[in-house]
Amino acid sequence: MAADLRVLHLHPSVLNVAGDGGNVLAIQRRAGWRGIGVEVRRADPGEAIDPAWSDLTVIGGGQDTEMRVASEGLRGQAAALRASVEGGAVVFAVCAGLQLLGRVYIPSAGEAIEGLGMLDLETRGGPERFMQHAACRVELDDEAETVVGFENHSGLTELGPGAMPFGSVLLGAGNNGRDGTEGARPADGSSVFATYLHGPVLPKNPWLTDRLIERALARRHGAVRLEPLPDETERRAHDEALAAAERARGRRTAIRAATLGRPAAPRRR
Q1: How far is Cα 227 from Cα 20, in angstroms, rounded to an integer?
Q2: Which of 169, 130, 172, 179 is nearest to 146 (CA)?
Q3: CB under 8 A, 24+ apart: contacts of 163-166
Q4: Nearest-CA neighbor of 215 among 230, 182, 183, 193?
Q5: Which residues pair with 152 in a beta bridge?
């Protein structure tokens, strides 16, 4: 197939914890194996982006300090990113990327971090950090699959009426450990997808990667259905991650954020 794919890696210098840059690599490889030419551009905070260029924008995760830097940079890029989505482009965001696409992130300490409002959600820092293998059921383009990854966040995300979950929790905490939602996407059906799953998530979930590529290609080349690839290695990685999440079922795997880094209390005699 002669179609080309343009991928924008947004803020890779500050939003790339847990190997989230591997999501871009997975997109490159799976497209390239099918003969699809891929061009990747990077745009860090303060750099201009062309709303007409990107077919697929990828945003990774980061901690509160990095999120503040990214938030300031996104203010100058927000109009272009919105215009890109309105023009049919895809956005895929992980963890801090999810929170920054929402209205606001309110950390446990410090001032609130303003989001872009592209997703109708709000996140508050909670008292616990969810750190565990996780899985959710995702429905996309009339198909449903189990998507696996590793969650590592203390955010408590609540979706508003303008958002719907990216998936439903099978194993793990999801958005808040309470309502069974995982990630978010706009209720209007536009192609913005956000999840808390690291891993990186796309190499372990070839089905999801291919659906994102198809949607991105459709922006300039019309409807595309990718031919299957021999995914034995990817399937093993997926199944091992799912088994790890199954083994953790029912255990308390969250770490209390308030106790991290504090010395243990002395024993009483």
Answers
A1: 26
A2: 169
A3: 163/119, 163/120, 163/121, 163/187, 166/136, 166/138, 166/193, 166/194, 166/195
A4: 193
A5: 131
Angstrom distance (rounded) from CA 229 to CA 127: 43
What is the model's pTM?
0.92
Interacting residues of 67 by C-beta distance below 8 A, sequence separation 6+: 15, 96, 99, 100, 105, 113
Are the C-beta atoms of 235 and 148 separated by less than 8 Å? no
Give the 3-state secondary structure of residue 181: strand
CA–CA separation, 261 and 268 (whole Å): 21
- Candidates 178, 187, 182, 122; CA nearest to 151 is 182
Question: What is the largest distance, in Å, between two alpha-carbon atoms of the chain?
Answer: 75
Per-residue pLDDT tens over the stretch 186-224:
999 999 999 999 999 999 999 999 999 999 999 999 999
Cβ contact 199:193 at 8 Å:
no
**44, containing H or E segment:** none
What ranges do the domains of the chain cover? Answer: 4-259
Which of the following CATH numbers is that of domain 4-259: 3.40.50.80, 3.40.50.880, 3.30.479.20, 3.40.50.970? Answer: 3.40.50.880
Structure confidence at residue 18 (pLDDT): 83
State the residue for tokens 């099978």.
170
